[in-house]
Amino acid sequence: MDFPEDLRYTREHEWARKKGSNFVVGITDFAQQQLGDVVYVELPGVGDPVKKGESFGVVESTKAVSELFAPVSGKVVEVNEPLSDAPETVNDDPYEEGWMIVIEPSDPKELESLMDAKAYRAFVEEHE
Amino acid sequence: MRYHPHTPEDVRAMLDAVGAKSLDDLFRSIPQPLRLTRPLDVPPAVDEISLFAEFRRLAARNDVAHPPFAGAGCYPHHLPPAVDQLLLRGEFFTAYTPYQPEISQGTLQALFEWQTFVCLLTGMDVSNASMYDGATATAEAALMATRITGRKKIVVSAAVHPEYRKVLATYLRSTHDRIATVAFGADGRTDLRALEEAVDGETACVVAGWPNFLGVVEPLPEIAAIARKAGALTVAVTAEAVALGALQAPAALGADVAVGTFQSFGNPMTFGGPAPGFFATREANVRQMPGRICGATLDKHGRRGFVLTLSTREQHIRREKATSNICTNSGLTALAATIHLSLLGKNGLARLARLNLERAALLADAMKRAGCPRVFSGPAFNEAVYDVGDAEAVVARLAKRGIVAGAPLARWYPDLPKAKGALLCVATELHSPELIELFAKSVRG
Amino acid sequence: MANPTGWKPTMEKDAKGGAAATPEPAGAGFATRGIAHEEPLLFERGSKGRSGVSLPAPAGGGDPAAAIPAALRRDAVDGLPEISELEAIRHFTRLSSWNHGIDTGFYPLGSCTMKYNPKSSEALARLPGFADLHPLAPPEMAQGALELMWRLERALSEIAGFDATTLSPAAGAHGELCGVMVIRAYHVAHGNPRKKVLIPDTAHGTNPASSALNGYEVVQLASGPDGRLHPETVAAAMDEDVAAIMITNPNTLGIFESHIQEIAKIVHAKGGLVYGDGANMNALLGVGRPGDMGFDVIQYNLHKTFATPHGGGGPGSGPVAVKAALAPFLPLPVVVKEGEAYRLVTDPRERPQTVGKLREFWGNFAMLVRAWALIREYGPEGLAQTGKLAVLNANYLRALLRGTYHLPYDTDSLHEVVFDDALQKDTGVTTMDVAKRLIDHGFHPPTIYFPLVVHGAIMIEPTETESKETLDRFVGAMRAIAEEAKADPEAVKAAPTRTVRARLDETRAARRPILRWRPGMKVE
């Protein structure tokens, strides 16, 4: 299982990566493994507001549905449109091509409250 | 008891294996005060011969000597015996929801064919595996429209089946959604001006009959245009599905959702149930649809097969966030409709629809000669409202002659100008020209 | 014609050569290879101009649809099949041969009560006096139907211990919707609809979904280590915002909720009501009555308890029985007997507190005929024997399979038993594999991966209509699979090998949905 060092993580298994002044968001390798084959991703529209800890979308496998929780508050400025036609990307490449949205944060400091790779790895190992 | 295979020796051997002394022992987890200590107060058991005698006596007290002239959401049609012969195959009727696709391909492929029939007849892209009935399908369509649009108001034509409207009201009551009802005009068509006034930016959908409860063919393109202008969906409701063999597909006229019942295909009236509700819509709405959906896929050797799919919408996975609570639907009745439609096919359905139009025209003509003109002037399929003077009296009088004369409109529309005389009557391929003549004469007494 | 099904004439061999795929004959359900036909979709066969019906010739002459505007008409529906009657018969007969039904073999699908569906009931429901009856026939023309409904209502009230029953709901989940609506109407009549419904974690998904449809927030309650719901859990969650608790008893683990009376007391004390999901009523027939246990409302599933056919997924029927205090809120219609005559009450003015109508017309009447036929055949002794033998059969399987499969809850169970795949963990064989391998032995698998509280659940409900020999063969197959899992796990994972299709790709189906035939349809 992969835990890239440059990311921050939530307890709900989302990751966030700094990109300029914005944050790219997706789900972790652990999350995609737990879900199994992802068959559908439902994402917000560009311009929609998101709030830290609240649901911004849904990811589905054939037998399970998981809500996606925003790691930080802000506004959606980009959405990974190709995922709607190729949801398997979330399984194949969760940290790169499988990204979901880009958030323009209202309070960039919120990122600090998230786990780093080491803490997230420990969190996953404890809960596995 | 022929359904219980256990001999006393079996019971003893099985109790021994379990380590229990008696059958009652098996229930020790039920506290004694909660056990029933007397026999249930139901009639004593009967043997098969007595059972049939008893049920024949009951059945004989239902007068079904003639095909009814009442339709009103449940239609007398000829059922080819081939349909029931196939339905009685235990592999179909004693299977359940196809949870194990490898041993349910029969049910699944038939469902896929049902979904295709529904799509072909309605012009929609996708259909589910069936609903309980037309009324609940209509209520679920309204609920889907509220989910898609995020709006809470439903605009429904007063000419939509009154039973469907009642069920819609029951379903929406606890979620506080609002229903606005739009009147129909003297031609029996939904009043377009009133509709335009009722539809606004809060409207999730407009619900109209296709054809409507009065038997009248609605101006569906105009209705859909009004809805679309306001960003609302159009739900077309069809209770008499044979009409879809002569009327344009609702999707082709602008409807976004088509619902109703396929009772007319392959299902007896059986006092109003069961019959397969249908639910079809455009591709974009597929993930908001209620109910089971069957889809095509491949098996591990690359052979085409079928499975239940998109099940994350459903209650067993999404629980309180599901698109509906529906689980078991109307599988066997949907199969009956699928078989009947396969027998009818393209030519048969066109002929059946034409026959219904012809018989309805004969009835209209005979009723006119009997002094009972049509109440509404709009174009009709196989059903129409006639002014018979006193509809309830006619129904009571013809009941004595073994004929269900029709549905007195005053029961649902007491404020209609000609309510007292208004009788909704149907004519189908089962009503011979002779029977139609006889009926029209009897109506006038 | 192209070969749209992708059928290949040679038997597929699994990776290991297929020899290991032959199940042990001992314990097998006598499944052998038969003649299986490939069959395309209806829309892929036939020939222009064919039809399979016989109808009177149209009279011809003028256009009977002339009054309908041309833009609103069509002459024919393109794409419909054109086949003869025999082609249709063969099509569906072949499809039927790809199904496993109760008539084919053992079908121990937990929580679904797959008991034998009597042929008598089928014949009786088809009597013309029932089948050809129009729902708007005046009551004097429908006295037999109304009497049957009236008698069934009373019997169902008696069997579950309630005061009144509605036959209107179309299935179990529809009955739940009805029951929660009635509860809501009761609370509204008492001034406050309340906000929440309590539901144990063992419940069917329909319970929370039915509550949500009524605008209630769902609060999930954890069941205890013995698989039971405990009074203190309920007490901690119970307040005056709770409209009801929904309890399945016995629950989906097959375990009787023996604290039910105390739980009901806690809920009633705060003005809440107790809803019973009657999905598992088969265990209690003639043995105990929910109405005597503190329940205020219960729904039946006639296709479970009273053997109306499951039909490949309905139609069902979900009558709802209630205590007297809730009777005024039941949906319409209600059957009443006045003197010697029966009548339907359909006018809300006669029942001002009714929740209204839940479906068109009066209920799934043909299912009511079948259920009443079964109750008449059974009588009081037969009903009680049904409950007892259903529980005997389940406990027999439990006794013979424990040790071979892990029993996550060792509490006494009634009509069904839940195992899991914990003992198979080291072999890599999962519940799914066991289920698929059972198919090769000629059995329908049990319910799997439900209830959700058991990881890898295998939920077995044999029902009372199965013989000891069938159960013994099933046990033999389950044991053979457990042995095979140790010796040759790949053989188990390759199952099923004898079916018309091998494991189907559900991921593909969901990622690229193909939900109907279109001309030139290809699945690839």
How would you sum up this structure, described in words?
The complex is a heterotrimer of chains A (128), B (445) and C (524). Chain A is 17% helix and 34% strand. Chain A is built from 3 helices and 9 strands, in the order βββαβββββαβα. In chain A, strand 2 (14-19) and strand 3 form a beta hairpin. Chain A is globular and about 35 Å long. In chain B, helix 6 packs across helix 7. The model of chain B has no long low-confidence stretch (mean pLDDT 96). Chain B is of the alpha/beta class and 445 residues long. In chain B, 65% of the residues are buried. Chain B contains 13 helices and 12 strands. In chain B, the strands form 3 sheets. A 7-stranded mixed beta sheet of chain B has the order 1-7-6-5-4-2-3, with helices on both faces. A 3-stranded antiparallel beta sheet of chain B has the order 10-12-11, covered by helices on one side. The radius of gyration of chain B is 25 Å and the shape is globular. Chain C has 524 residues and is α/β, with parallel strands linked by helices. Chain C is 32% helix and 9% strand. Chain C has helices at 85-96, 119-125, 128-131, 143-160, 172-189, 206-213, 231-237, 260-269, 302-305, 365-401, 431-440, 468-487, 489-493, 506-511; strands at residues 164-166, 196-200, 217-221, 242-248, 273-277, 297-299, 320-322, 334-338, 341-345, 417-419, 447-448, 458-460. Chain C has a 7-stranded mixed beta sheet, sandwiched between helices. A 3-stranded antiparallel beta sheet of chain C has the order 10-12-11, with helices on one face. A two-stranded antiparallel ribbon of chain C has the order 8-9. In chain C, a hairpin with a 2-residue loop joins strand 8 and strand 9. In chain C, helix 5 (172-189) crosses helix 6 (206-213). Classes of the chains: A alpha+beta (128), B alpha/beta (445), C alpha/beta (524). The interface between B and C is large, with 203 and 211 residues.
